[in-house]
Every structure is written in structure tokens, then in C-alpha cells.
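Worked example

This section walks through a single chain of length 163. The input is the sequence exactly as stored; nothing has been trimmed or padded.
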Amino acid sequence: MLPLGILRRAHGVRGEIKLSTEMPERYLSSLTALSVGGKRYEIEKARPVPDGAIVKLKGIDDKTLADSVRGEAFIPDDARPVLDEGEYFLDDVIGAEVAFEDGETLGKVREIVRGAACDVWSVKGETEIMFPVISGLIADMDIPSRRVILSRGVFDRVAVYED
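Given that input, the structure is written out below as C-alpha cells.
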């Protein structure tokens, strides 16, 4: 399951709930389901608001029920939104093999740190290497094969090796 955000509190008296999420607004309206506390809920509607969305879940029709559905929310695998070309979910990259165009392998993505300007990937191979994911760095990304190919020229300018 894909982390979505946190269901905070009831919004109004008709069963709507405030969702804090970083999911881009263009995908919020296409969400069909979420899971909280191991229970799946179908989404009737979701509308963006600052810092997230207001969601209405099927079967949650009053404030008392809405207040009972709180906590970390996930998107079930069968309800993931379809992404645009070149976009990916962070959890699809964790564990992916990272290599250069010439075939030299660096290791596997261990962690991704979200940054204001760009994400920073930590790759563990013989050593741990960290680098910002900037324009031109990723030459190819094959999510189904869990393989990322980097441009060596860009990489050499930005990588930080741990001693």
C-alpha cells in the first residue's frame, strides 16, 4: 500500500473528513479508495483544500462516525492513481537497482529524503552514496524492472560519498 497522509478530524456534520496529504491536487479527485487502521473505505468524493483534501467516505455519514476514522491513511495497491509519463511513486523506487549507462552498478536505493528543491536519494552498494535528483541525472527509469540508469557526468558533479 502507498502512504497517502493522515485523516485528521471530521469536517462539518455530514461525514466529511480532513485529510493532510502531499499528494498533488490533480490526483486527489481520482482517488477511489483508502485504508485506515487496516480497514478499506471507498471514497465518494475528494476535494482539494490547502494542505490536503476533504474526503467523503462511503458509509461515513455523520460527524461521530467521521471522527472515529482517524490516523495514517494508505492507498490500496488496486486504487493507485495512474501517473503521468516520467512520474513515479517513491515506494516504487525504494529497493531499485541504480546503475550508470555503461552498466556499472552503484547499489540499491535505500532511502529517499524529500526536499524543497529536490529529493535526495541514498544508495547502498559497497559504500553509501547520496545525491540530489536534479534535472539530467536520471537517464532512464524502468519501474517494472526496478532499475534506474544515471548519467555519469551529472552524477559526478553532485554525488556525496560516505567514508
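What to look for: The domain at 90-161 is CATH 2.30.30.240 (SH3 type barrels.).
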